[in-house]
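Recall that a protein's primary structure is simply its ordered list of amino acids. Everything else, from secondary elements to tertiary packing, is in principle encoded there. The following example makes that idea concrete.
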Amino acid sequence: MNGNQALEDVKTTHDLQDQPIDLHILGEASQPGSAQWRSQGAFVNDDGVQVSMTGNFNAYSFVATSRDTIVIQVFNSYQATNYANIL
């Protein structure tokens, strides 16, 4: 999206379907003073149109760890079953 005008056009998550997302990862050290850390979180994406969430959203779990390199694992934790209802 470019500039504030594009942001003003966003009213629901449906308006964001073709846009990339930013993940902000804040890890917690495994031990005080350690360079090793872990973080986890979730991302829920619905179609922005349906009122009921039942069967109308996808959810993803993220786990990020750092030892020598940063590793981000993504798991599909819930899959929409009513995807034919998407506009």
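The helical segments are 3-8. The longest strand covers residues 37-46.
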